[in-house]
Design goal:
By secondary structure, the protein is mainly beta. It has two domains: about 90 residues, OB fold (Dihydrolipoamide Acetyltransferase, E2P); about 130 residues. About 10% of the residues lie in helices and about 45% in strands. The radius of gyration is 17 Å and the shape is globular.
Length: about 220
């Protein structure tokens, strides 16, 4: 089977598992490993490293079966159910070089300034990309009270190329820290995390919900 080496740039909530994605060190392209042709979430059995999920900015080696693009996620690649291997980390300078080649500068983000894609429209005209890296300007974070599920929703508000964007946060690093805060707006420095000099966001287009695909902040991180 073909082998892929991936710089992990997204690890976010997806039903009972996770959506993982990154940039291939073999091809320089985005890759989203999935557990079925339908793009289902990954569990530990699909991608675990010594019993845990891969972390952001780790380099992992995995085997692939075939490309299985969907109309809203053209980067999907089917993988076998087996552990991934961890490789040595890249130097921060090399990581910055890779990410700089993939930055979206706006004002459009994944082809538009809208937060939502109509699912039927995507089927008629598949998107060209469902993953992107952005360097947000005027970034603020919000823990919003809502009357459903567990009562809160976390947001990343920012500007990109002069346009305003607001994305719900689905990662496992910033999102949980923000959720523990009282409802309101915050800066990264308010979340008791090590200083991030240059914040970056991995944006991902999610599966359909109420016949819509939402853009998500699938990872919020920085290179120190």
């Amino acid at each position: 089977m073909p082998t892929e080496r991936l710089l992990v740039l997204a690890s976010s909530k997806k039903l009972a598992g996770r959506c993982l994605a990154g940039i291939s060190l073999e091809t320089g392209k985005w890759v989203r490993p999935v557990s079925s042709l339908g793009g289902e979430a990954l569990g530990i059995a699909d991608c675990g490293i010594e019993g845990r999920y891969p972390r952001l900015l780790e380099i992992v080696r995995l085997e692939t079966l075939e490309a299985c693009p969907l109309a809203h996620q053209p980067e999907n690649v089917l993988i076998p159910k087996q552990p991934w291997l961890l490789e040595p980390e890249l130097a921060p300078r090399r990581v910055i070089e890779i990410l700089s080649d993939h930055l979206e500068h706006g004002p459009d983000l994944l082809g538009s300034t809208a937060r939502i894609f109509d699912a039927q429209a995507c089927l008629a005209a598949p998107v060209k990309a469902s993953l992107a890296i952005v360097e947000p300007q005027a970034l603020s974070l919000e823990n919003e009270q809502v009357p459903w599920r567990d009562g809160s929703r976390q947001w990343a508000h920012f500007r990109l190329g002069g346009a305003s964007h607001s994305l719900t946060i689905s990662d496992f690093v910033i999102g949980p820290r923000l959720k523990r805060k009282p409802f309101g707006s915050y800066r990264l420095g308010d979340l008791e995390i090590p200083s991030i000099r240059r914040p970056l966001i991995t944006v991902s287009l999610a599966g359909a919900y109420d016949d819509r695909h939402y853009k998500l902040a699938a990872a919020l991180f920085g290179i120190r």
